[in-house]
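Researcher: Please translate sequence to structure tokens.
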Amino acid sequence: MDTDTDLLLTLGIVLLVLSVPSLLAAWAESRAPRIGAIMVAAAIGLIIAALVIKPGGYDFNQVPGVMIGVVARLFE
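Model: Translation complete:
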């Protein structure tokens, strides 16, 4: 089984970005950020999995190209 680390990294970053509104809403309403915290934990797990599984990991400057490549594969 070949794991697609580019997809894992992209999903992790997108999930991390999408968790921000949930965290801010919980903070603004003075309630516990349960869903936001779960999303952050899942996102960090996906990102770490991608970094550990890929031989050599990723450089910071590779991330935009990786994300564009994953999005381009969606529209093939």
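Researcher: Any highlights?
Model: Residues 5-74 form one domain.
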